[in-house]
Every structure is written in C-alpha cells, then in structure tokens.
Amino acid sequence: MLQQLLPYLAAVLVEQVRVEEEKVLIVARTRDGTIVSCPDCGTPARRVHSRYRRRLADAALGDRQVVIDLCVRRLFCDSARCARRTFVEQVAGLTVRYGRRTAALVEIVQAIALALAGRAGARLAAVLHVPISRATLLNVVRALPDPPRPVLRVLGVDDFATRRGRRYGTVLVDLDSHRVVDLLPGREKAPLVAWLADHPGIEMICRDRAGAYAEAASAGAPQARQVADAWHLWDNLAHAVQRTVIAHRSCLMPPPPEQAGPVSAKTPDPALNPDTGAEKWLVTRTRERYRAVQDLLAQGWTISAIGRELGLARHTARRYARCENPEALADRAIRTTRLDAWRPYLISRWNQGCTNASALFREIQAQGYPGRTPQAVRRFLRPLRDTAKAAPAPPPKPQDLTNWITRHPGRLRAEEERQLDDVLSRCPQMAALRTHVHTFARMICDRTGTDLPAWICAARADDLPQLHAFVDGLERDRDAVLAGLTLPWSNGAVEGHVNRIKMLKRQMYGRATLPLLRKRVLLA
User: Which of the 8 DSSP states describes residue 289?
Assistant: First the structure.
C-alpha cells in the first residue's frame, strides 16, 4: 500500500513506518548488491566504502509532514583514469544530489516558487505542510536552469520598465512560439547587439519605432528584415493627430449664438396669453365646459339636469347656456392681479439685464407695489426665462476629438458623430486630417503597404505640419514601415508579455532584481 502511495520507494527497502503527532517518519535503506555507476566516468562500482543516513523531506500525507530517513551507500570508483575516488549512490525519483528534499517535493517547491515567489509562496507551502522560508523559495527560483532555447526565426523586441521613468529592460520574444526567450538590462543598443551576435540565423525582427532597437538590429543581425510594429505606427499617428487638434483648438469653438431680441411691453405677455402661461388651464377648462353645456342643451336637457351632470351650480350652467361666444368666457377666465401696473417696468428692467426676481420685487415695492413676497414677480418672469435661449454647449475637448477622428466611424455614437461633423464643417484641415487617418487605418487593416507612397504625397499636400513630422519619421524608417504595413507579423504577443512582466514585478512589490524577474518570466 505504501509503495502504491509513494511509488518512488519501490527502489528501496522500507524498514519502518512511524506515525507521529505531526509527521510520518519512514525508515528505509538502499538495496545491497545493486550496481551503481560512477557519475563522472560511468564505471560500475561494487565496493562499498561506508554507509550514512540522509534525512529527506517529502510531500505531505493528509495533514502530516512526511520525513524519509534513508540509509545510503558510499562506493569506490575503481577506474584509475577517474579523478573521483568515492561517490554516494542516488535513488532515481527519490534523491537529489546535495538535496534534503525528495524529487517529488522539489517539483512542488519549484512550482510554488515560480507561481508565487516569496512571502505568498511561503504561506501556501505552510498550508501544504511544507515548511520553507521566502528566502529559500527565491533561491530555488534563482537556481533553476534556463529553458532550452529554440532556433529563432522571427524575433519580437520591446522595452519594459522595472522602475518607470528610471530603469528599463528589453524583452525578446519568439514570435513563432509566442514564448519569451530572454530579458536584457536597459534599452540601449549595446546589449541587444551582443545578444544578436550570439544568436545568428534570425530572419526577421519585429520592433517598435525606437532608434536604438533599429540601430541594434542593423548592427547585430544585418541579414534580418526589420518590421515596424503596426500598433506603434498607429500610436505615433494618434499623437500626431492630437498635436494637430491642439494646434486648431480654435476650430472647436462653435460660432456665437444669435442674441435674442428685447421683450416688448406691447407684445402680448406670455403669462396672459390664452394659449400659454399660468392661465392656460383655466382657459382650457372654460372652453371644455362651454362645449359640454351646449351639447347637452342641444339634446334637450334642462339647466338643472346639466348642472347636476357636470357638477356646476345652476347659475353657472345658465351663464354657459346663454353665452353665444366662448372666447368671452375665456377672456373672463384670465384674472387681473395687483402686479399688472408694474409689468411694463419689469419688462423694461428685464431688457436692461436685471433678471433677479428678488431685486426687481424690492424696486417695485419701493414704488408702491402692495405685495409682501416676490412670488408674483417670479411667476411673471418664469415665461421670460423659458423663452430665453439656453447657454451653448461646451466645445469638445482635444482628446475627445482625437479619439473620434482615430476611432472606427461605425463605433461613434450619434452625439459624437454630430459634434465631429460640426467641427469638420468649420475646419477643412480637420476634415483632411480625418481622411488621411482613415486611409492609413485601411492600409494597416488590409495590409496594403504598397499604397504608402501615395498616402505620403497626399499628406504632404495639405497644410498639416504635425502630420508632416509623422511622415518624416516614416520616411526615415521606410523599409521597416513598409514591412509592417504588408507582413502579418506584429508585436502583439510582445505587448502581452510586457503586461505579464508588470504583473510579476508588482507581485514582488517591485523589489525583484532583473535576474530573479528573468527566471520567473522564462520559467513561470
């Protein structure tokens, strides 16, 4: 049963299994007569020099730590040509040279160290009944060998920050397998040139627009074709668009609105108009009652019956029945107020710019207005405020306009498209810029790099200095840009690994040295 649970014990003789309070102790020894070869020369050894006991920690069983007390042999190497005189036998799958953990436990510790590193890894190991310190976990990561390096054909290069604004590194990715092959210190030319010289045979190098990487690729791998990453090309164009928008920020302001004319005292007051204002509901009710009374009267109803049906007093029903013109009743529904005598004065002050109801109330009160509160003045001014033109909407921000110009037209909301069209109608330079941006986007999506010369000529023909600076950069790196707009290779996988590097760096609180970070990136 024990050998089924721990198959690597099949090569040894288990003498005793002792279950203690917090651990399981397994006492075992290697088999006598087993021929073991010298690790240096491979000569079979039979003569035993001595025996000694090794104490090995193993993976836990349940909630108990497992310890193996193993007796091993030290043997003589009888080859005269071998410099080694004695050696200790190793048990395959169980022991590791100079190790105090079994091979199974070593794999567990390595997996924890690569996934969680220091303190977090130590906490998880304690839960798994594998006591180990954070420093030991980091040493385990540092001691791991590098993975075998494949034959590189297409290499992706980009930079990452170990401390933003201060220290940087360079990440190299095999774009065929999408695996990181190395991390280099700094983002200068020299380290990359030396690395490329040690790895000949690279056919293609995909990079960003940094001049140091372009020079390093030319010096270290002159046979490789350089490809400018399409995303970085688009990002450079977006920055040129933003600078152009900032230079034309005056075009973002809408034209000043037409000034509303002054309110005339002779104009019918909206507050007293039978079709609008505060008295509208009285006028509407009067007209509806008049029609209802006349309809019932035509059907032969009596005045008393009409009053009971409509909920009107008999004299009110009689007044509606005898009236020939409903507008006369509507005019009577418009009530006069104590404010009527001061309305021309209020309109005059409104046209002079005084729109504060409390201030106007104090002025007419000083002239003899008998009201005690400014509520009537507020009601009178409310229609005037409603008819005043609303304040113009704020202009779009430069970053918003940059986003709208560089975004796919089908992803613009209706309001964004309206504001963008409004700006483009006022600024022909912005309209031309948007056309150039959309043409460049089609080149990236359709991989039609052959259209680049025509696009450059069209961009230079317009008065867009900021776009001309972007074009100058394209022409300095013309071959790589053409390759980036034509070939299917890009730095997308490299950017993904840059994000992964940031995650691993932050997981170690930014305190990991480059060698430790490199091991985790290559092996995790």
Answer: H
Range of the domain at 402: 398-484
CA neighbor of 465 nearest in space, from 413, 508, 429, 494: 429
Q: How far is CA 468 from CA 256, 399, 419, 444, 483, in A?
A: 32, 20, 26, 19, 21
**In the block, residue with structure tokens 């040493």:** 139
Question: In sequence order, what are the residues at sequence separation of 6 or more whose Cβ sits closer than 8 angstroms to the Cβ of residue 122?
Answer: 132, 133, 134, 137
For the chain, helix, strand, coil in percent to 5 are 50, 15, 35
Q: pLDDT digits over 192-244, tens only?
A: 999 999 998 899 999 988 889 999 999 999 999 999 999 999 999 999 999 99
27, 80: one domain: yes
Q: What is the pTM of this model?
A: 0.68
Return the CATH number at 494.
3.30.420.10
Which residues are CB-contacts of 298 (< 8 A; sequence separation ≥ 6)? none
Best CA proximity match to 456, nearest among 466, 446, 470, 444: 470
For residue 293, which phi and psi values (nearest 5 degrees)?
-65, -45
Query: How much of the chain exceeds pLDDT 70, in percent?
Result: 91
> What single-letter amino acid sits at 142?
R
